[in-house]
Amino acid sequence: MYRTTTCGALRSNNIGSVVTLSGWVQKIRDKGFMIWIDLRDRYGITQLIFDEDRTPKEIMESAKNLGREYVIQVTGKVIERASKNPAIPTGDIEILVTELIVLNHAKTPPFTIENETDGGEDLRMKYRYLDIRRNPVKENLIFRHRVTLEVRKYLSNEGFIEVETPYLIKSTPEGARDFVVPSRMNAGQFYALPQSPQTFKQLLMVGGMDKYFQIVKCFRDEDLRADRQPEFTQIDCEMAFVEQEDVLNTFEGLTKHLLKEIKGVTVEKFPRMTYDEAMQRYGNDKPDIRFGMEFGELNDVAQHKNFNVFNSAELVVGIAVPGGNKYSRKEIDKLIDWVKRPQVGALGMVYVRCNEDGSYKSSVDKFYDQDDLTKWAEKTGANAGDLICVLSGEKDTVRAQLSALRMELAERLGLRNPNVFAPLWVVDFPLLEWDEETQRYHAMHHPFTSPKPEQIPLLKTNPGAVKANAYDLVLNGNEIGGGSIRIHNKQTQAMMFDYLGFTPEEAKEQFGFLMNAFEYGAPPHGGIAFGLDRLVAILGGQETIRDFIAFPKNNSGRDVMIDAPAKIDQEQLKELHLKIEN
Amino acid sequence: MYRTTTCGALRSNNIGSVVTLSGWVQKIRDKGFMIWIDLRDRYGITQLIFDEDRTPKEIMESAKNLGREYVIQVTGKVIERASKNPAIPTGDIEILVTELIVLNHAKTPPFTIENETDGGEDLRMKYRYLDIRRNPVKENLIFRHRVTLEVRKYLSNEGFIEVETPYLIKSTPEGARDFVVPSRMNAGQFYALPQSPQTFKQLLMVGGMDKYFQIVKCFRDEDLRADRQPEFTQIDCEMAFVEQEDVLNTFEGLTKHLLKEIKGVTVEKFPRMTYDEAMQRYGNDKPDIRFGMEFGELNDVAQHKNFNVFNSAELVVGIAVPGGNKYSRKEIDKLIDWVKRPQVGALGMVYVRCNEDGSYKSSVDKFYDQDDLTKWAEKTGANAGDLICVLSGEKDTVRAQLSALRMELAERLGLRNPNVFAPLWVVDFPLLEWDEETQRYHAMHHPFTSPKPEQIPLLKTNPGAVKANAYDLVLNGNEIGGGSIRIHNKQTQAMMFDYLGFTPEEAKEQFGFLMNAFEYGAPPHGGIAFGLDRLVAILGGQETIRDFIAFPKNNSGRDVMIDAPAKIDQEQLKELHLKIEN
Predict the structure, then answer these.
(1) What count of Cα atoms within 13 Å lies in the side-chain half-sphere of residue B314?
(2) How many CB pairs under 8 A join A and B?
(3) What's the pLDDT at A441?
């Protein structure tokens, strides 16, 4: 037996007992006649003591030869510490070691195994197994486990059944790119890895499973943006005989449960906002509502005043930055530079200082008088001491730009408190979105999303205006879940495929099984999928999903630890009926 | 709202209340003036009643137009049934329908949606979403969910952390064939889908995670034998600072918990048997010990008696078939034909009838007298009324043959009772097994398995005799789990790779990250993996895993429902830098 207890367990009431511990050498303090070692395992740190008077000579010797991250097993008596350490739970005691076995040696690690490490991202990823020894990484993984366990318990209690759907499925050109898997037994044919179990969960509803969930890996072969992973995990859910209201209530329940169980935070009924309202008030379909700085639309009060930049703009819109009047001219210039960066892309920014005496000073005083600016302040909710930032241009573009500025300023002002949780349902998403590249409409959510039934006729006349029974759950400015009520009849589904540019043959080849299923008694159904990686990160008070994934891939989709992807044998290629094209 | 309650919920204490139900039309009995409909959902069946006197005319009409598997929503009053049905929980009541909405039509299903269906395997798989509506299939999936939830709860309570390991990893030629995934962003390179998370779980141990588990899909591109799936699910577990004893005790605890929670069966301490003993007593490393019929080795008492077949055999071995003396000559001849089938491959079978009067009558009376046969009966444990079946030949071959016969006879005799659970640990597996094809030794478990340390020197002189710290958990004649204590030091691992025919370069290329990890303080560790599909099937009292998988593949690895694998676009191939070779 390697241990009788762990390095996190011993307290002063254990004093006098003899214990065996195993773990890693975290730190060594060698005073010659006395050696202290911090022994670490997953559960904590326990101090070991060796001293000339009380420790056998050969053990003292072998303790002197230990190095950082050596794996050792020790036996000894629990004694009271001379100087206690209130910072750790085992700080009252130490182990007077009488036996020491070196279980494994260790080379000096390439970075320090401490909460704050000197290792850069790349090095930590290459030696991820050492990185995981660090408390923050280890705790994130344990935290993730706790979240998934609570999700499973909650949904199971609500009558949901976790069903495993297949990973080797069929490629569909709609949506993002699939990862494919060549079939050896079916020459020239490929499986695809699922981007989501969407069609399978719908078939489970047709199959009468009533309430389904699954915590499941999904795959997307995308050019990776920062903090996207080619494989990611979803909490995938579907319910039959439900309307949107039922789905929202059920998963509001789940989210409240997680906030309560995991964070000890009680949240009242989640607010709801339509997509249109979110875009108007925050320029964003996933607004962070932990703070204000809502958009004030200024067309009425800023146009037709000889300022051509505004007059020619589709939208003039501003936000009030709390306390922003204290910014120096230089700071404001920097802010203007910030919005002009290519990542944001504004052409410029108009600003108004709201002086403490109630007067205004703007960068466009030539065109606007105090009365005008008073109206701007009203529209943006600016108070004395604030700074109003105004952008203008094409509606969607300028909203995105001002939203970026709003988030950046909130970050700088410390308004994005990770310990505050502000969930929000955004509902009534558009059914379709225009794609400039292909010059046609695409499904905004996916092709199985139900349009609002009363708006179906609009599809012919004003497709962009058709709203869907689709919803997102937003938490602290991040979309953590999204779903919809699905189409459940064959005619509507066929019409949607037609609308999205599938020929009947294509629709049949790719989704024939689903269309067929709809003919055998499909119930009304709908669901939602949560991005687990992001949900866990946000609950953990962070926004980088990589920190909550045990073995993440880098931005080129590589696992730098195992060095994958890699070349495969010619023999393997031949069996798969494949040749590499250069 | 589509329903106020479900079709399994209403009892006589609900009589008088008005409810709304949704579900599928299971059965219609139309007497003209009165119609009864069985309405079905996941939770049960509720009888609806429509009658001329009490039901509005238009609802009566529309009820007459319903068909099997239509999806309907009804509102009505719960009333007492005239003739109660004690066979179903809702049998005391029925619903007098006042509102009826047809939610979806249904074509006549291709097979009956009943517990006993007229649909063949192929048809049921093609329309799996209809098959899942059948109670036995639906209940199997719900059962699987219950098992996985209990596994997660139990292991979490024991301090195990579920960590998700990556699906896009690196191909290794050792073991079965990998499924591979071409990388678009890394031309000419491939990911592989994991055959198991073996190396990752070991890295988690190096990373100090201490106790890991994961319920995870694994992939093997094998020529499919009956009841094998290219994708299958493992309960994958690993522990640090453990010896074999710790692992066995932990997972014996899990298995007992499942038997208790899921089946209500209490099992005492699991027996243990070495691999050698299992082979000797049952001819099989996964013996079904629910019944006896143990092997009796007869070399001592059957050789050197002028019967050349036995004299030239490495092993002469028999079993006593309880009550087998009652078999007719014809039945015994059929048994001999059975062992001579190519799937078994015996050349013949010697038998001894144990008469009720204590005398023996054998098929080799020419060579053996009553004294000889008395000794055979002693060795095989045969009693009066039994039949002794004896096979001979090369040891391993004849054991496999007799084991097959033993299982077949037990099946016929009804000794394999699915409600009896007889777990067994088989320990001390050989480290290596000889491969005829490549004419060298392969790792029996996998290359990371630790040999018994004291036997390492034997590797040079008698490699086949070296035993490993490897173990299987056997339940009712099926291997449900297998694991080992792993190698945790670089030198031993390098030696094993060398031994298994890896050049140092190959070992480095494929497993360099693991070898490196072993240099930075790897703890002693070991683990186990359970085959979830089989575990669930056996707990469910069945042995066909396909019945416990929502969307299984057929023996050619095809999903006949979605028709995968399939061809992909030329465009997709090009992006992946691939060409199909004919």
Answers:
(1) 7
(2) 365
(3) 87
Measure the N-to-C terminal CA separation of chain B; round to a whole number of Å.
56
Nearest CB among B130, B210, B566 relative to A42 is that of: B210
User: Cα separation of B20 and A241, whole Å?
Assistant: 12
Distance separating alpha carbons of residues B194 and B283, to the nearest angstrom: 32
Is there a contact between B207 and A166 if contact means CB atoms under 8 Å apart?
A: no
Residue-wise pLDDT tens digits, A456-486: 989 889 989 999 999 999 999 999 999 999 9
pTM of the model as a whole? 0.95
pLDDT digits (tens, 9 = 90+) for B171-181: 876 678 999 99
Domains of chain A in sequence order: 12-104 (2.40.50.140), 139-163+197-272+424-548 (3.30.930.10), 291-415 (3.30.1360.30)
Neighbouring C-beta atoms of residue B35, cutoff 10 Å: 21
Do residues B565 and B556 make contact, with C-beta atoms less than 8 angstroms apart?
no
Q: Who contacts B197 (Cβ-Cβ below 8 Å, separation ≥6)?
A: B165, B214, B216, B218, B236
The two three-digit tokens of residue B539, written as one number: 């707990």
Q: Whose CA is closest to A92, among A18, A13, A28? A: A13
Q: What does the pLDDT look like over A498-548, one tens digit per residue?
A: 888 888 898 888 888 999 999 999 999 999 999 999 999 999 998 789 999
Helical pair A329-340 and A395-412, crossing angle rounded to 10 deg = 130
Put simply, whether B436 touches A (Cβ < 8 Å) is no
Interface of B with A in 221-240 (CB under 8 A): 221, 223, 230-231, 233
The yes/no answer to whether this complex scores an ipTM above 0.90 is yes
Q: Which residues contact B400 (CB under 8 A, 6 or more apart)?
A: B283, B284
Token digits of residue A125? 């990823």
CA B168/CA B183 separation, integer angstroms: 10
The answer to whether A386 faces chain B, any CB pair under 8 Å, is: no
Residue pointed to by tokens 């309430």: A211
**How far from B349 is each of A128, B316, B322, B362, CA to CA, in Å?**
59, 11, 17, 11
